[in-house]
Amino acid sequence: MRVALVGTGTIAGIHAEALRGLGDRVDLVAGVDVDGTLARSFCRAHGIPYAGTDLADVLDRTRPDLVHVCTPPGAHLEAARTALAYGAHVLVEKPPTLTLRQFAELEAASSHSGRHVAAVFQHRFGSGARRLRALHDAGVLGRPLLAVCHTTWYRSQEYFDVPWRGRWDTEGGGPTMGHGIHQMDLLLAILGEWTQVSAVARRQARDVDTEDLSLAHVSFANGCVASVVNSVLSPREQSYLRFDFAKATIELTHLYGYGEDAWRVTPVPGHEEEVLSAWHGGERGVPSGHKAQFAAVLDALTSGGRPPVTLAEARRTMRLVAAIYASAFTGRPIGAADLGPGSDFYERMQGAGPPWRIVARQEVA
């Protein structure tokens, strides 16, 4: 599979190393960045033969089968459209787009081109998450009752001094959109469709346009309820998911990726043998990470299938992000039906703007 990387920053380096780890399944043919010096340096470092600054020109010259979009979020849609127009499949980093409207445009471009677009949500692909999903689907754990999904990270003010960070127009949101989205996607991969969200969001400590924390109560179609927290103000950093089923509690504690030792299983008394034998007997040994997802993407494309995570699945996650903002900024519960075309939060994640922006305008007036 001939692969090109668009954007040559930190995340592109992670992509390149993961792709190299797949051996002769991948031929890295090009690296593209608006900064030619960065593009050339990146390609030398990773043994990539062609570096360029104009995506269309690079695609015309190298004709990759698959393009990884690793640019800042505000450039995702245009890069994906260009790659699709040149006949390549696309794997796009999170968040796939800045808004739900842009997401619909990405879906339309994929459909028109006949090529696939998948979103990078690598936490789905560790063997622990795959095992949990399999046990849940098989009914081994019983009905899901309660879940916790907390992304409590720390980012200093200096982190946001990068011009595109902390802005609605270039990043699409704060930690709800750009940090906790990975944990929320895994939550949804296990529990399925959400039905209603009640949330708050605050700009507590960072000098940014977006929120720096959010808290939400999420209801699911299967009757489960979840607590969801996203923060960049937490000195003791942690990514924590907990699923309380009728027969067991399953916990995952990690930071940016997990292995087998990050999971903890606590069966309900009387169900120890049933739960633990199923847990220990399932798929094992694959840590979460880009390599695991990239392997699954290659498997799907080489067999003529649709690569994971599909746009339909990613849309559910994007809508949850939009619902948290919509509930926080309108002060009312939000369902998926509230986020269609015509909604302020379909057009922009912040809708008409967060409360702190309104206060600032009033003070200026």
TrEMBL record:
SUPFAM superfamilies: Glyceraldehyde-3-phosphate dehydrogenase-like, C-terminal domain, NAD(P)-binding Rossmann-fold domains. InterPro entries: Gfo/Idh/MocA-like_OxRdtase_N, Gfo/Idh/MocA_Oxidoreductase, GFO_IDH_MocA-like_dom, NAD(P)-bd_dom_sf. Residues 130-249 form the GFO/IDH/MocA-like oxidoreductase domain. It comes from the Bacteria. Residues 1-116 form the Gfo/Idh/MocA-like oxidoreductase N-terminal domain. This is Oxidoreductase. The lineage of its organism: Bacteria, Bacillati, Actinomycetota, Actinomycetes, Micromonosporales.
